[in-house]
Design a protein that fits this description.
Largest sheet of chain A: 8 strands, mixed
Oligomer: heterodimer
Strand order of the largest sheet of chain B: 6-7-8-3-9-10
Helix content of chain A: 25-40%
Largest interface: A-B, 45 and 52 residues
Helix content of chain B: 25-40%
CATH superfamily of the domain at 3-16 and 26-93 and 173-246 in chain A: P-loop containing nucleotide triphosphate hydrolases
Distance between the termini of chain B: 33 Å
Distance between the termini of chain A: 31 Å
Structural class of chain B: alpha/beta
Order of helices and strands of chain A: EEEHEEHEHHHEHEHEEHHHEE
Shape of chain A: globular
CATH class of the domain at 3-16 and 26-93 and 173-246 in chain A: Alpha Beta
Strand order of the largest sheet of chain A: 6-7-8-3-9-10-12-11
Strand content of chain B: 15-25%
Order of helices and strands of chain B: EEEHEEHEHHHHHEHEHEEHHHEEH
């Protein structure tokens, strides 16, 4: 397996409004020294609550958000230090699927034009070969050729997400960043899209950076999983290890909160682990472990010193007292 | 025993540019005191219209209740006067909406909004109502409720806003609480908190809860009984265990098997999927409305509409189940 993406100490900082005219600009660290690796043909799932920095991490990794520090090696080349034109050429290899299939397609363009546009912009092939490619992609994602000249509003949510996927595949990318691609869809449609993504991964050898808050979805599609909390990865492991033996208390709480058919009210199911409260504010992060205030296993050490990611039982965990 | 809330053969139609469209077609369901009824189905199946009809919130016109009855303790809500409905709504029967940001008023503090609901239904002074509002905020687990009562909705997180909605809904100890996808906009950890809170409220007040959701996982955790809806009809009606363990209707079976499993060691290669989408209501033809998406369709499904009948296990509207082909 060759390494496709190697992210080292990625940091994203946003400026906040100044409290007064002469005060220094305060900053918010949305992503704090995040490192991960993605191999060719694999899918890495990033999970966490809203505000945990999962989308910002992915966007900074593909340079759609400005990173304040760190390195992103894509096939050994640092994306963050490329000049604009070199980065533009690199974008062929990195494509994106958004969460909301309603707002991410131009309502005034015909879908064939929407799918063709990346090839126009990248100047790939001639008009004839582009049209042919659009037809192929339509078939690949499960749309009919007679739908080529329709407008986005004539499609259902699931079909629109198929159009987004077709558009993302036009440039033959190596990496597909999927930002909550199924969370706006109904469960039955969600299964259709997940099966399509799994099929594309096998057939085209794509790699996914898959952002989701739904653990079931991540478990289904991803080979490796990283759990984020307040801008940091708190646990990272291959799928089976993470789901069968979660070690970080936050991962355990997430798993315990996710609804599952195995938990029955009739069998007197009571949630094993309850999380109260909300995550702390990233504007003023706590000195110790960010999860300490909500953690049932927290001790004095957790409030004073920040745990770092360490290898433990086949996973990487950032916790002083992993269970 | 008569049910606390009973919906019988409810038919709701809307005037649209396609002519009169039947949004609910002889929908029947009931819920008893202290019980949770789960209503499950995809978008466009009539779940929310059922809830809004029960609350008397269907805009008329274009909507019209064309038949059937909604009985709360024997009183038919489709026939009561507007003023009687106003006193029942928020009093005996209350609703929690999906999007807590758009259902709270942005220009009043949350304390004021809860107090308003209390003063509408109980003869109390404004001061007392505000005190009650703070007690309710405390009850739904909001820290430092006396301070939070002075906050505006935009100052609260999504989970806190949904707690405020719940506080408002339970302010008059409703007999029936309708929760329309109360956690769709929230994170899983917050969803778990809201579900736990709803269960506590039910234990303390003995309210009946109607939980509307598209998530069979939520049904499994929360519901005692389930009504599965498809294209404006109830197609399966049973206890949660019956539906989850031995679903009779192909649609119910599809809804269950298309969820990626989370349990230990669970791993499917491919998810079962239901092909296609819910048909638009104005394009429903003769026969079963699920026939285009179903793998068990035969000639009878195309011509004859299946009725919700008990063929052995529990009521289901499916010819295949009736003929033992399911």
């Amino acid at each position: 397996m060759s390494l496709l993406l190697d992210v080292k100490d990625l940091t994203v900082r946003f400026a906040l409004p100044k409290p007064s005219m002469f005060a220094p600009t305060p900053h918010l660290e949305a992503v704090r020294k995040v490192s991960f690796q993605l191999e060719n043909g694999r899918a890495l799932g990033i999970v966490g609550e809203s505000g945990s920095g999962k989308t910002t991490t992915a966007m900074a990794a593909i340079r759609l958000t400005h990173a304040s520090g760190g390195e992103v090696l894509f096939e050994g080349e640092d994306l963050l230090s490329l000049d604009d034109e070199a980065m533009r050429q690199r974008r062929r290899d990195v494509q994106l699927i958004f969460q909301d299939p309603y707002s991410s397609l131009n309502p005034r363009a015909r879908v064939a034009d929407i799918v063709r546009e990346p090839m126009d912009l990248m100047d790939i092939g001639d008009m004839e070969s582009r049209t042919k490619r659009v037809k192929e992609l339509f078939e690949l994602v499960g749309l009919r050729p007679d739908q080529l000249n329709l407008f986005p509003h004539q499609f259902s949510g699931g079909q629109r997400q198929r159009i987004s996927i077709a558009r993302a595949l036009t440039t033959n990318p190596k990496l597909l960043v999927c930002d909550e691609p199924v969370s706006a869809l109904d469960v039955a449609i969600q299964a259709q899209i997940l099966n399509l993504l799994a099929k594309l991964k096998d057939e085209l050898g794509l790699s996914y950076l898959f952002i989701s808050h739904d653990l079931g979805v991540v478990r289904h599609l991803c080979d490796d999983v990283a759990v984020m909390y307040l801008g940091k990865i708190v646990e990272q492991a291959p799928r089976e290890v993470l789901f069968d033996h979660p070690q970080h208390p936050y991962t355990q709480a997430l798993l315990s909160a996710a609804p599952s058919l195995a938990r029955r009210k009739s069998k007197g199911y009571v949630r094993a682990m309850k999380l109260s409260g909300d995550p702390p504010s990233p504007i003023n992060p706590p000195k110790g472990c960010a999860f300490a205030d909500r953690c049932p296993a927290a001790q004095d050490l957790c409030r004073s010193s920040q745990p770092v990611l360490e290898a433990r039982a086949g996973a990487q965990v950032a916790c002083h007292f992993p269970g | 025993m008569t049910a606390l809330l009973e919906i019988e053969d409810l038919r709701v139609t809307f005037n649209t540019r396609y002519g009169e469209v039947t949004a609910l077609d002889s929908v029947s369901m009931h819920v008893n005191e202290g019980e949770t009824l789960g209503v499950v189905g995809e978008s466009g199946c009539g779940k929310s219209i059922t809830a809004l009809s029960t609350m008397g919130l269907i805009p008329m016109p274009p909507g019209r209740i064309a038949g059937g009855a909604i009985r709360l303790n024997g009183e038919d809500l489709t026939k009561v006067s507007d003023s009687r409905m106003r006193s029942l709504r928020g009093g005996d029967i209350a609703m929690i909406f999906q999007e807590p940001m758009t259902s709270l008023n942005p220009v009043f503090t949350v304390g004021d909004q809860i107090a308003e609901a209390i003063m509408l239904h109980q003869k109390v002074s404004r001061d007392q109502a505000l005190k009650d509002a703070i007690a309710l905020l405390d009850r739904v687990g909001i820290p430092s409720p006396d301070k939070r009562a002075l906050d505006y909705p935009h100052q609260l997180s999504g989970g806190m806003r949904q707690r405020v909605m719940i506080a408002m809904a339970v302010s008059c100890r409703p007999k029936v609480l309708i929760a329309d996808e109360p956690t769709t906009a929230l994170d899983v950890t917050v969803q778990a908190q809201i579900f736990d809170l709803l269960n506590e409220i039910q234990r303390d007040y003995g309210s009946a809860i109607i939980l509307i959701t598209h998530d069979m996982g939520a049904i499994s955790e929360m519901a005692d009984r389930v009504a599965v809806m498809y294209a404006g009809r109830v197609i399966e009606d049973a206890t949660a265990d019956q539906v989850l363990d031995s679903p009779q209707h192909p649609y119910a079976r599809g809804l269950i098997s298309c969820i990626p499993a989370l349990g230990k060691g669970a791993q499917q290669d491919r998810l079962a999927e239901i092909p296609g989408v819910v048909p638009p209501l104005h394009m429903l033809g003769a026969g079963c409305s699920f026939k285009e998406r179903c793998s068990l369709t035969n000639a009878r499904c195309g011509s004859e509409k299946p009725q919700l009948i008990n063929h052995g296990a529990h009521p289901v509207a499916c010819h295949a189940a009736e003929e033992g082909r399911a």
